Amino acid sequence: MGTPRKTRFDIFLFFFFSSSSSVYHRLAAGMSPVPENTPLLSTVNPSTRTASVSGAVFNVATSIIGAGIMSIPFALKVLGIIPALVLIVFVAFLTDISVELLLRFTHSGDSTTYASLMKESFGTIGSVATQVCIMITNLGCLIMYQIIIGDVFSGNKEGGQVHLGILQEWFGNHWWNAREFSILFTAVFILLPLVLLRRVDSLRFSSFVSFVLAVVFVGISSVMAIIAIVQGKTKSTRLVPELDNETSFLNLFTAVPVLVTAFTFHFNVHPISSELRKPSNMITAVRIALLLCAVIYFLIGIFGYLLFGDLLMSDILMNFDQSVDATGAMLNDVVRLSYAIHLMLVFPVQNFPLRSNINEFLFPNKEASLVTDERRFMGITMALLVFSYLAAITFPNIWYIFQFMGSTSAACLAFIFPGAIALRDVNGIATRKDKVVASIMVILAIVTSIIAIFININNALKN
């Protein structure tokens, strides 16, 4: 696999946000399926190919880092530091391979989106399977966002430990700051006005703010961990997992889907690539972004594990509820609020392509646009918001959502579908090495997913 040349200047420009205003409009356009008899993405006008490699790096990194970062420290607790580091690197490596396969097979045919590429290889069933997996993955993200928002404002109970939310710390326990009401309040007064916007381009400012808030979260968490290391107040950690009568080797596979979900951004590969001046530079952008995200994941994982040790919750934000002084308490609240607001602003961005996918999946023959059909627009929008709210107050924590998505839809989008495309090889470009690598990738994804699903069902029955 050839690696396009990258410059220091391109990497340096990653830290600037000049391209953020248009990314989400392009992402939503690329993810939306269309009726069978029309192209899944209109031909890209060369004049719109204005994005640089640095802009693509920022777009890919934004697509990767989301709610997944909250459960990375818990994955280190399950696996131990060394196996977790190895797994993060390995999943990032496989992600690079799968994206390279997607891009190469896309350029060899007439496809312009993930769904159309699957349709080219497997017909309508391939396109439908891709659309369904994208919808499941995006809906899972919406549910996780609301679970985390509930954790921040109203706390949660996990492993016999009760962690208070910000509202309970400030005002005490009342009926109006219970988990169900805090999530409902944010859904009605914050999320609903945002998801009612008809154009995703209207969210460009909130998208930029959400990224800044995510950086604030990572920065403050890292500083707190470094201070704890200097003062010798870090918690005991494990380099390797402890296997005993209650924890078997197979239980370690439950952390794999979490990392798979954390690196799944494949449905955004084509729309981001379509904006590049040279689409062939996409793989360079992906590799830089994967390296940056892998470093960020491991840093937040190790710092979170050092801060809280075996007391870590599946959502690390729940651990930021105790401090010995006022300054520490303020920092804890800033960390939690910054990421909660970040997720509120990201919520409508994830909702937009999901709503479009559902509309065109359920109503492929409707001539009227979703934006102009008030009844259809409001019906799908309200159904998604109500369903995600009910699921958020039903599931106890985000770990279960991560495991489900990582074992099903995310595993298919990230590894199984790209490998299957290479094995199908409808354009006859796959080498023997490609097919061997694709076979290994598909087998690993299927086996680990089956084991994780089996262990999760077994644990659920025991509980």
TrEMBL record:
Primary location: membrane
- Identify its membrane topology class: Multi-pass membrane protein
Q: Which domain of life is it from?
A: Eukaryota
Pfam families in alphabetical order: Aa_trans (PF01490)
What GO cellular-component annotations does this UniProt entry give?
organelle membrane
- The membrane spanning regions, by residue number, are 56-75, 81-103, 124-148, 181-197, 209-229, 249-267, 288-308, 337-356, 377-395, 401-424, 436-457
Q: Where is the signal peptide?
A: 1-22
Q: Tell me, what is one Gene Ontology molecular-function annotation carried by this entry?
A: L-amino acid transmembrane transporter activity
Location relative to the cell: Membrane
Instruction: Provide the Amino acid transporter transmembrane domain boundaries.
Output: 50-456
The reply on keyword tRNA processing is: no
What are the UniProt keywords, alphabetically? Amino-acid transport, Membrane, Signal, Transmembrane, Transmembrane helix, Transport
InterPro entries in alphabetical order: AA_transpt_TM
Report the protein name in the record: Amino acid transporter AVT6C-like
UniProt source species: Cucurbita maxima (Pumpkin)
* Gene designation: LOC111488403
